[in-house]
Write a structure and sequence with these properties.
Length: about 210
């Protein structure tokens, strides 16, 4: 079995969603002075490779700490999407439907994680259209993941696609990495959030286990 890291490293100066604050690392305890090292890390709940809870945009939506731990692990399917596509349509999902029926997570592989750390990462990435999002929501999935900054387009402030998916008590995983190392199916994914109260989202260490 191969274990593949699907997460970007959290560090100062890393890419963050436009308008939000980047992580800040402080070092209040020094080995020479205090005999131990301990960092203070300040960051937003949607930093780096992270998941969105329904509570992220839905009034009375579930927070991650109210979801069972089983919601963050399961079988995955990886769908290839051309990076230059403006949208992911329902017909792009059709060929994968038999695999999706037995899966828990669907990951969309655009290859755009290669642009991580550049301005190009924030623009022109493919997003699900409403028909495709509604179709995915019919499979009883635990979650949907993307190797892009968001499930919605960069100029979309309605967060329509978020609403469709999160409205089914699914989670959304954004900023995934290394999806190019995954097969279409035959792998499981684990993406456990930090266990804190009222979690509208959380950074995750997403990993895949390939048989």
């Amino acid at each position: 079995m191969k274990i593949i890291d699907l997460s970007h490293r959290i560090e100062p100066g890393m890419p963050v969603y436009p308008g939000t604050e980047g992580p800040v690392f402080e070092h209040p305890f020094d080995l020479a002075r205090d005999g131990f090292v301990e960092m203070k890390i300040s960051m937003m709940s949607h930093t780096g490779t992270h998941m969105d809870a329904p509570a992220h945009i839905l009034d009375r939506g579930k927070t991650l700490d109210r979801m069972p731990i089983s919601a963050f692990y399961g079988q995955g399917v990886c769908i290839d999407v051309k990076a230059e596509q403006k949208e992911i349509a329902a017909q792009d999902i059709t060929a994968y439907e038999d695999m999706i029926k037995t899966a828990d997570f669907v990951l969309f592989r655009t290859g755009l994680s290669r642009l991580w750390g550049t301005a190009g990462y924030f623009e022109g990435y493919p997003v699900l259209n409403p028909e495709a999002a509604h179709r995915l929501s019919e499979f009883g999935l635990k979650g949907v993941g993307f190797d892009t900054i968001s499930a919605d387009g960069p100029a979309d402030t309605s967060f329509l696609i978020h609403g469709i998916l999160l409205g089914k008590d699914m989670i959304i995983i954004e900023n995934l990495a290394n999806l190019d190392l995954l097969p279409r199916a035959g792998f499981s994914i684990a993406c456990f959030p930090l266990h804190f109260s009222g979690a509208d989202g959380s950074p995750v260490r997403a990993v895949a286990f390939v048989n």
